[in-house]
Write a structure and sequence with these properties.
Number of domains: 1
Distance between the termini: 22 Å
Strand content: under 5%
CATH class: Mainly Alpha
Number of strands: 0
Shape: globular
Radius of gyration: 22 Å
Number of helices: 18
Helix content: over 70%
Largest sheet: none
CATH topology: Growth Hormone, Chain: A
């Protein structure tokens, strides 16, 4: 390890193209940027981490924050429930559909360049979406923001993993980075509630100025290295088109299915086309000399498990959040501010854990952390399933919120760390894009499933009563945590036997 780690923190400063020979491989370039904890982290390194973690925080915040404002948006713009769903799903469609391409693009075209361009697009799209009144344009801008996030997330994560040496330094950086992302998801409901009290437009505008500020700071602190020499023959065009097309069709199909029906011809054709493109993608990757996704990376059991765990974790959380938001606002009549205060404990737990998770990751196996995290999620969902008409906050929601905070604080950094551990530097963008793709696709699928469950009865919402189909939706979400828990137990047992 020490043979390829730069021990002097001053060597983490910007490396210009004239200082680095372009004949060096991306792996060697990235190794020269590694730092250790021996000399501490300079202010510039901390600012770098703030920019990268801040971008992830805004990505997570944007997914959950706007959900609180949906009823207000619908009332103001006259949008139906199916149209409102696309404000969330449009973002997820762009995010989940292009994450894999975003990860590989950052490896091939330069992580700094890809990250900054995408961050700038995210900020500008946020500002524009807050001032327009055309429903279709708002949804289109949400899609563009999702695409931008699909490039900032893997590029940002790969900048971290190629800047901080594997071990304590990287664990510390990753724990701060991933917990900031988890904090964004958790605090999104809090920020969304507070901002919606001012205006629903504030929820769309809020990430914009912050993203543009991070862009300005990032221009100064993100290390500039000579981009690897690139030729179009190196780029897997067929793989890019088939993988992106397959994921876009999959997310589009499952998001639209609750509206037009799971057995509708359009739904079936969309899903079959997605499967066909994915089959074509596998064939293309087997034949290309420099594939978009090196299939050999999937031989790692721990990496595959991390990706599946990310899908189960995020899918369950997003679906549950959707159910709770509708229940509290439509049935119980909670105001956005009341929701913000109600969800505050979870956000605080996740945020306060940021300074501790690096030490936990150093000492505790990720399998054990996943067991703890999925257990907390399962208990949270089961406790909420006890909800009945007239049950007070302290009796049914507060324990759930606390358990959700514990689950996210433990599980989120664990899957991100495990999903990139042991991966070569020149494939870090691919690995981070892969784990985030699984998470977003899992979220889109479970949002569609839960929406279908809630709307299948065609019964109106009765004030003060449970939503039609709510109990079934909670049990389905609980099942995801059971699968994730079982996977962590099985893989952990196999590792103990082999050691």
């Amino acid at each position: 390890m020490q043979a390829h780690i730069v021990s002097d923190v001053t060597q983490t400063q910007v490396v210009s193209e004239t200082e680095v020979s372009t004949v060096e491989t991306p792996r060697r370039l990235d190794q020269r940027m590694h730092i250790t904890t021996g000399s501490g982290w300079s202010p510039k390194v901390w600012l770098l981490l703030v920019v990268l973690a801040g971008a992830l925080f805004l990505d997570g915040l944007d997914v959950s924050m706007v959900g609180v404002a949906l009823p207000s948006i619908g009332d103001d713009l006259g949008m139906s429930s199916s149209q409102l769903q696309w404000i969330v799903s449009g973002y997820v469609l762009g995010y989940g559909g292009l994450l894999l391409l975003g990860g590989r693009t950052s490896d091939l075209f330069g992580r700094r360049r890809v990250f900054l361009v995408a961050l700038g697009v995210f900020g500008v799209a946020s500002v524009i979406s807050a001032v327009v009144d055309v429903n279709a344009l708002i949804i289109a801008l949400r899609f563009i923001k999702g695409i931008a996030a699909a490039f900032t997330v893997p590029a940002g994560l790969s900048i971290i993993t190629t800047t901080f040496a594997e071990g304590p330094a990287r664990n510390r950086a990753l724990s701060i980075y991933t917990v900031c992302g988890a904090s964004g998801f958790s605090l999104g409901l809090v920020f969304g509630g507070l901002l919606t009290e001012l205006s629903w437009r504030a929820t769309l505008l809020f990430p914009g100025p912050l993203a543009l500020l991070l862009f300005v700071v990032g221009m100064r602190v993100i290390p500039a290295v000579a981009a690897p020499s690139f030729r179009w023959a190196q780029f897997d065009v067929v793989g890019a088109l088939t993988s992106t097309g397959s994921l876009l069709l999959l997310v589009f199909g499952v998001v639209r299915a609750p509206e037009i029906g799971w057995t509708a011809p359009v739904t079936l054709v969309t899903l079959v086309a997605s499967a066909a493109l994915m089959a074509g993608f596998v064939v293309a990757e087997m034949r290309h000399r420099l594939p978009l996704l090196r299939l050999g990376i999937l031989r790692s059991v721990s990496l595959v498990q991390a990706n599946i765990s990310a899908a189960l974790m995020f899918g369950g959380y997003v679906a549950f959040q959707f159910v709770v938001t509708l229940y509290l606002q439509q049935s119980l009549g909670w105001s956005p501010l009341s929701m913000a205060l109600g969800f505050l404990p979870a956000g605080l737990i996740v945020a306060l854990s940021a300074t501790k998770m690096d030490k936990v990751l150093d000492r505790v196996p990720t399998q054990l952390l996943l067991i703890v995290g999925f257990t907390a999620f399962l208990l949270a969902y089961l406790w909420f399933a006890r909800a009945s008409a007239g049950t007070g906050y302290a009796s049914f929601l507060l324990p759930t919120i606390i358990l959700l905070g514990i689950g996210f604080a433990v599980t989120f950094p664990s899957v991100m760390s495990q999903g990139t551990a042991g991966v070569e530097d020149d494939e870090q963008g691919l690995a981070s894009g892969l784990v985030n793709t699984f998470a977003q696709v899992g979220g889109a699928i479970m949002m569609a499933v839960v929406t279908a469950i809630l709307t299948s009865s065609h019964q109106p919402v009765v004030p003060g009563q449970l939503l039609p189909g709510m109990q079934t939706a909670i049990w389905v979400v609980s099942g995801l945590s059971i699968v994730g828990l079982a996977g962590a137990v099985i893989v952990g047992a196999r590792r103990r036997k082999s050691s």
